[in-house]
Design a protein that fits this description.
heterodimer, A: 448 residues, 9 helices, globular, B: alpha+beta, 2 domains
Amino acid sequence: MSAGRVEGIDCATDAGVGIRVAVPGCGFGFAATREATKTGLEIALARAVAIARALPTTPRRASLPPVPPALGHWAGPCEIDPFELSLDERLELLLTAEALLRGDPRIVRGVAESLACRTVVAFASSDGAAFTQERTECGGGITADAAAQGETQRRSYPCAQGGSVALAGHEHLIGLDLAAHAPRVAEEAVALLSAPPCPTGRTTLVLGDEQLALQIHESIGHALELDRILLGEASYAGTSWVSPTDIGTLRYGSPLLAISADATLPEGLGSFGWDDEGVTAQRTVLIEDGILRATLSDRQSAATIGSESGGAARADGFARQPIVRMTNVSLAPGESGTLEELIADVPSGVYMETNRSWSIDDRRLHFQFGTEVGREIRAGRLGRLLRNPTYAGVTPKFWGSLEAVAGAPAWRLWGLLNCGKGEPGQYAHVSHGAAPARFADVEVGVLR
Amino acid sequence: MNADGELALARRALEHLSGEQAQATVTRERSLFTRFARSEATQATAIDDTTVELLCVVQGQTGAAATNRIDDAGLAHAAQTARSAAAAAARSGPGTYPGLPSPSAIGSHEGYDAETARLDAAVAGAALADAFACCRERGLEAFGIWTAGEVLTAIAASTGTAVADSFTDAHMSVIARRADGRSGHAAATAVATASIDAESLGRAAAARVATEEPGTLAPGSYPVVLDHAAVGALLDLLGSLGFNGLAHTEQRGALCGSIGTPVAAAAVNLADLPNVPGTLPRSFDAEGVPKSSLALIQDGIAQAVVYDTRSAALAGTSSTGHALAPGGSPDGPEPSNLVLAGGDAAGVEELCAPIERGLFVTRLWYLATVEPRHALVTGMTRDGTFLIEDGVISRPLHDVRFTDSVLQILAATEALSERLRLVSDHDLYGRRFAKGVLCPALRAGAFRVTGGSA
C-alpha cells in the first residue's frame, strides 16, 4: 500500500517433494520435484542417487547418526486465521495506517504492508520418522521515506525489512496497531532530514531491542552455526571466528551475556515440532555467564564433533535441502529495569534503534551496523534526534563491553524473514528475543 | 531447446482469465548445484520445477498469484486468486498501473547451450576433482560451488503478447584455503559449462593465497586496484541504487538531479547490454518488453535510468524493458546486464604500476548500503587483499573494511583493464534467474578504508 493505493497483492502457493539420499561409498544427493506422483518420485530418487554417485567420493560423510523416530502432528499458534479473512478486511487495516503517513510533502513514499504465510510439511525418513506440521506466520509494518535538499531518510515501525512477523495468526498484525504509530513515524522521517549527524568517536551505546536482535543474529547466531565453524559454508556464507575446541571455555562476552536457542518459544518464527531432519524441537543454552556452551547444529555437523544434533536443520521449502539454521536465538533479559532506567546512569552517549544497514566479515568478527535513528543521551536522558547513526566493533570485544540489559518487561521477540544462506539460496525465518542493552566504549559515527 | 511447451502452458493459464486484462508467465527451472568444502563434495541439489504466475489488472490495480500446480484445477484456482486480489485492490480506488504493454517483436540471442542443459552430474564431478587436485598440489583445500541451469520462460497476455525464451547458465567458484585460514578466490560464469575451466580456476584461486604473514593497513584513503570481482559487486549494487527508475522518480535514487551531468571519470562507460557476447543474454523482461541496449553512463556523464511499465508511467516515459516481476516489482526495476567498457591496461600489473602505495582487492564481501542517496556503501575485502608498493603487489594484508560511495570510486577511476570478465555471485534465491556484470578490473585514485580485521 502506497500513496493511498494498493501497490500490489501477491499470492503464491507451491508444493512438491524433496528427497535426500545417503549413498554408501559416495555421499549425499538431493533432488526436488513438483511431480508428487509415483513416477515423479522415482525419477527424483534416481536423480538424487545419480548425482551422489557422480561426485568425488566422500565416504565419511555418507551417513547420519540415528535419532528416535519423529511421529505425530504439530501446529503453531493461530488464533485468527488470516486466510479466513476477506482481502478487504486485511487491506482496510493497511489503508488506514498508510493514510496517516502522508500529509507532509517531504514524505515521498509511505508504505504499509502485511504478510500471511502457511507452511504444511509432511516428513518421512528411513529412520522411521513420519510426521506432519503446520506453521502460520503473520505480521506487517509501515515505512515512511522523506526527501529534501539532497537528503533522504527513512523511519519504520515496528521494525525495518517488512515489519514484525511472528508465528501467529492475524491477531499479531492487529496487536501492532500500525495506525497509532504512523503519525510519529512520518514526523520522525521528516525530522531526521535536518537532524544533526551522529557524532564520531567512542562512547556509551544503548541499543533498542530490535537493533539488538539483529546484532545477536549477525554476531552470535551465525557465528555459532556448526557447519560454518567446521568450514562447510566457506563457499558462500563464510566461516566463523569460533573453533569447535572453544566450546566450554571461550569467553564470548561479559558475564551478563546469556544466549539460548529455543525452538519451543511461543510465536517464534524459529519454532517447530521437529526440525527438517526429524529432530525434536529443543532449547539449547549457547552462552552462559558469557562463556560459550554449545553451537547450533544438525545431525551431520554434530556427529563430526561427537555430539548430538541440536535440532537446527531447516529447509526453505521442498526444493532446498536442510542446512544448519538459527531457531529463536535470544538474549536473556537482565535486571536493569526499563529503557529509561538503563539510560539514567549514562552521562553521555548515543541511543540507536531500528536497523538500516548491516555488514560483517565472513568470520562474523568485524561488523559495522547502521540504524534509522539515533538519539543523543545527556545526563541520563534521551535528547535530540541524530541522523545516519552507525557503530562498529569486534564481536567478543563488543559483547565483552555489555554492561547492562533491561529487564523482562522490556524483552520482546523480533522476527526476521530474510536470513540468507546456502547454495541454492535459502531464506530462513527466525526470531530473536532481546531487551534494550547498554555497551561501554563503542565506536560510533563511523560513516565518514 | 525452445520453450513452446511453456508458451502453450502460459496460453492455457491465460484462458482462465478470459475477458480480463491479464498476463500469464511460465518459468521452468532445471538445475544442478554441487557444493564442496575441504576438498570434499558436501551437498548436491537437483531441481525441476515449473511456476505459473498470473497477473490480473483491474482499474489500474494488479493482483498476482503464483503456483506450481499446473493442472486445470490449479490454474483455475490461481486465476481466481489473482482476479480477487485485483478486484479487492480496485475497491480501494484506482491504481497507477498503466496497463499491460503492447506486444513487441523480440530478438534472438545465443544464451542457450544444449550441452549445458543436460545438467550432466559427471561434468560437475570432473570439475570438482580438477579443483581439488589443483589445490592439493599446493597444500591447500578447495571450497566452492559448481552449478548449471536451464530456464525456459514464456509470457502470454491478453494484449496479444506471446513470447518465449530459453537460456542456460553455468558458474563455478573456488576458494583455495590454507590451514591457517588465508584464502584466495576465483570464479567464472558463462552460458555454457564448457566455458568453465575448473583447473584454471583452482590455479587462480591458489595463486591469491598469501604465503607471508599479512600486514595491517590503517584507516585512510588509498589508491586501489579493484579486480573484476570487486568491480562487478560494486556495479551490481549501483544498479539498484542509481538506475532504479522508481527510486529515481521518487527522488530517492543516487542519480537524482544528475542525469546529463558528470558522475564518473571520463573513462567510465556503463551500459545495460542484454545481448553482447560474454553476458547472460535475455530476450525480454518480466512484462514481455523486449530487451535492448541502453547507455547509462557515457564518457562519465549520467545518461539514463531504467524503467518498467509502472515506474515509466510515473516518470512520464516508456518502459526500457527492465521489469523484475509481472506488473513490476514493488521495489522498482533494475539493470540486468550491466557492462562496463574496458580500457587499455594489459592487466592487473599495469594497473598497479603507477601506485606508490595502495591496495589490491580481489573480492568484496557483505556490501551494505549506508546512504542510498549518495550510493554510500560499506563492506569487507576477502580472499586476497594485498599492499601495492612502488608499482607492484608487494605483500598480503589482513582484510579491510571500506566505506565509500560507488559513484566517488567511479569518479576517481584512472584506468581500466582491456579484458572484461562476467562477474556473478550466483546467489540464486527463489526461482533461478542468473545475472552478472561484465566488467574490467580498474584503478581508482581513492578508496576509503575505514577499518581492518587484524
